[in-house]
Amino acid sequence: MRHVLPNGLTAILVENHAAPVAAIQVWVRVGSADEAPDEAGLAHLHEHMLFKGTARRKPGEIARDVEARGGEINAWTSYDETVYHLVLASEFFTEGLDVLADAIQASTFDADELRRETEVVVEEIKRSQDMPARRLSRDLFALAFEAHPYRRPVIGTEQSVRSFDRPKILGFYRRHYTPSRLTLVAVGDFDEARALREVERLWGGQFGAPASPPARTPEPAQRAARARFIEDDLREAHLAAAWHAPDLRHRDVPALDLLGIILGQGDSSRLSLNVKRGQELATEAHAYCYAAKDAGLTVAGMTVAGTRGPEALRALLNEVQRLREQEVSEEELATAKRQLEAEAIYLHETVQGWARRLGYYEAVAGSLEFEREYLARIHATPAAALRAAAQSYLGADRVSIAGLVPKGFPLDDRRALEIAAEALRPVAAAPPVEARPTAEVPAFVRGASSRPEPLQKFPLPGGGTLLVERDASVPVAAFRAVYPGGLRWTSEAQCGIDRLLARLLTQGAAGRSAESIAREIDRMAGGLGGSAGRNSFGLQGEFLSRFFPEAFGLFLDCLLRPDLAEPELEKERAIALQEIHSRQDHPSGVAFELFAKELYRSHPYRLSLLGEAASVSRLGRGDLETHLRRIASPRALTLAVTGDVDPGRVLEEASLALSSATWRDESVAPAPAPEPRPTEPRRAVQVLAKAQAHLVLGFLGVRVSDPQRFDLDVLSAVLSGQGGRLFIELRDKRSLAYSVSSMNVEGLDPGYFAVYMGTSPEKVDAAVEGVREELARVRDSLVPAPELDRARRYLIGSHAIGLQRRSASAGALAFDQAYGLGAEEHRRYGEHVSAVTAEQVRTAAQTLLDPRGEVLAIVGPGGAGS
Prior knowledge:
It contains 31 helices and 22 strands. It is of the alpha+beta class. The longest helix is centred in the first third of the chain and has 19 residues, at 111-129. 54% of the residues are buried.
């Protein structure tokens, strides 16, 4: 599996024949923490430049070559590594290796392309300013680290990025991009011996001029608490506390990882149960240990509504203090260990997830063997070790507290430090921790080769349909239940009812309390939650298959016997109202809601999935029960189960549960009246004080049952993707945006076709005209054959890549059946797309993307697009 080439490059090759796809990743051991002080953001800009052309490929052709082979290519930069990754149809494995080899070994770093890409990165920086969670993370690291380069944002600043020229980029490349600093990871449907020969042929030469990166300045020990609060035009406060943690290979990291899970991961975590749901002080809460190559951070954070910031921060820190004073229960510890084990298993569902795990352990942690060492230490960690770690690392003198808060929020630097001093009190030292014998490490999937068995279809009591697809390649089971519902069946007076009802499905059912359900889900290392969309309502779950009987029983109880208890309703209503209040903190979402309201003047698709404050405030338990009876008809139920399951057992359990269920009303709501197509352009503008303007330009689309949906999918693929026209013309050539994409969204009634872009306010008019020009091109002329072929292959490959997870497969089966297409319609997607012609694409564009029916929504600072 692990091979070292004579030039020093490490190759990790793993055969996995569960699906006809392959993932290839190149991990470069250089990140933003390896930059000199005058290079902030250089690693990230360099990552962008590797897609901007080589001696053999012009700008855009790298992505185009991958997409033409049914693949996707991208990259990311972090503090410790830069990673280039692609996933594609396995028959093109060698071509994928060649594309990455060309990009990494032969990029031209053209000066003109550098100037253009610099503007794109500046747009990316502005985009991050409109994302509160990302801003808070950046502020937290800048506060916690005073000397170490982890204090600098990975992406750099507008000033630093604009200062880079071609010689600086080339110098960075030659120093760091050498074979000995590269790890190539490939996982998928290929022959290892043959793959190794191709790696040696394409990657076996010498390149770069190796040089040691500058020494990272060590972070001095923190001696006093720190706090930094920043006010902004926000509707919700974002708070986080961090403590310094050791590097990822340190013996205490397993204990800190387990503490992070117990404190703030999963619905049964302490922050979720006690702070979010118990005291209702937070709308979201989380915790984790960021263990990195150098000393990292243990972080606990939350979002807070209203003015209860001081209470919320105190409650969060009180939970940390409990970890320092008392040992966690054996039940909590066992659950946390199981969740870490499950994380590795779930990653094995996809070739790209598997490759990412291998790349991380080899390139960042230092060896593949470290995974087994780490998991052995996790399983051997006793509760006393968690308390000892909490005492050692999570004290008052080591905390850094950051806040991004609305103006006038009743919490500032001084008050935060006072609360920390009150909550994080000195504690008596924990007794010494006795070492335990190393526990047996669970066996993980290696080289799984089985493929799914044929789909089985069964009638259910009451008239519903059960679909079961057994796939034993990974020990995971996924469940999906779908009823007709969602916005399509919603009135304006009850806008938001499906989302609220979906939340309540898992908050008490069949005698189980909300807390007991949360604990069961986390104990089984799974996920379970209601879903509400534009056309459907239901429940979805994913669990380790060894828990199938319990997990499926819990799933069916939540689906068929939800309590809808008043106390839980009030809790979920409060969270829903806060989401509605704070949605303006997320301007891209606001832009799509504004677009829907302008496109649909009468159809319920115009309504917000979140709902409106007035409608959600009025909803009572009786309204929810009546609505559930209306949509949850037994004959309308589609239930799909996929993964490592026994079909006979699934049918037995489902039939038993449905036979004993109390049937609901079977009334069918009338279909809403069709939405007339706009006959003249419409435009809506909403002012929000943000760094970027967000625009959606689109048209009324087609139904999911309309054959023309495939023409629109191909049209969207011509425009979208890194090899698509929008990306190349508007991003690559004109630097108008970091994020630009098109989408075809169908529904049971006509959906929409739209283009989204985030851009600087002063570029809005140019961006809109640029989009219109590209739409005019597809209306006026036939798409050339090579471009059409790329779009079709890209769609077919992306479709296959997206179906690797059991939950995705269950969803595809359930929705196809529920929407009247036939359960296996998604398996014919490639056939449908392959049949689309250039003439059909142009006809679809001319018919459906008529400029007279254009709807434009713009959200951003005053004057943007006015």
